[in-house]
Specification:
Elements: H1 2-28, H2 33-66, H3 76-92, E1 97-104, H4 107-114, H5 116-132, E2 139-144, E3 147-153, H6 157-173, E4 176-178, E5 181-183, E6 187-194, H7 200-215, E7 221-223
Parallel strand pairs: 6-7
Antiparallel strand pairs: 1-3, 1-6, 2-3, 4-5
Length: 231
């Protein structure tokens, strides 16, 4: 019911405002100029309030669709919408897109030892560390569980490796706390980079395979390039 009301709220609001203006016009036909001015000033105030309400509802709707509740990072739906648009731009203009998949090492041990609430708190703190250490143009996404994805627009493979190592080092040196208990965690990061449009799932798969390589050592990064096919 709530989703339905949010979906049709803009339409309901528009009809209400239209009816309000029609009513205001009818009323002004029987009023003095001074009273008409007051009516239209009141109408303007009401319009402003409704516009602010509409903006708030729109932001709330966007957040419910594209933001991960726990970490406040973007979710998968937002990632796919963003990467699809980025692939289309890449087809028109030569550039780069690099992808980082980040996975916490031995995260299950935290959940098993301290409970899932402790694990959730670590994920929230990690998300804040990631957000503080990427550019505004980079897209941080909670992929699921203890995996995160960072989309780097206009970043070459070499620079992506540098960024991944910097993030890995920052996390390694960061102190995480829950109930005054210190947690030292590490992450493994898989990286891939392209300069031509390709299938999105194949692009993700490259980074995922790179992550698999990184996980063999833990607290490390690994890069996997797009294979060159013989024609």
């Amino acid at each position: 019911m709530k989703r339905l009301s949010i979906k049709f709220f803009p339409l309901i609001l528009s009809v209400f405002v239209l009816l309000l203006h029609i009513l205001g016009y009818i009323v002004t036909l029987y009023l003095t100029n001074y009273s008409m001015l007051l009516i239209w000033l009141l109408s303007g105030c009401i319009d402003t309030i409704f516009i602010l309400m509409l903006g708030k509802i729109t932001r709330s709707f966007h957040k419910s669709m594209y933001i991960d509740t726990l970490t406040q990072l973007n979710n998968r739906d937002f990632f796919y919408a963003n990467i699809s648009a980025s692939m289309e731009r890449l087809q028109k203009k030569q550039s780069y897109i690099s992808l980082l998949i980040i996975d916490l090492d031995d995260f299950k041990a935290i959940n098993d030892t301290y409970g899932h609430i402790a694990g959730d708190e670590i994920l929230k703190q990690l998300s804040n560390v990631i957000k503080r250490n990427i550019k505004a143009t980079d897209i941080a996404t909670r992929w699921g569980g203890d995996e995160f994805v960072i989309t780097l627009h206009g970043v070459t493979a070499k620079d992506a490796l540098t960024i991944a190592n910097r993030i890995r080092s920052i996390i390694y040196n960061h102190d995480f706390y829950y109930n005054n208990i210190l947690f030292k965690i590490t992450v493994s990061i898989g990286i891939t980079s392209i300069e031509n449009k390709m299938d999105i799932n194949a692009f993700i798969d490259l980074a995922d395979k790179a992550l698999y390589k990184a996980k063999t050592n833990k607290n490390s990064v690994a890069f996997l390039d797009m294979p060159i096919l013989d024609l």
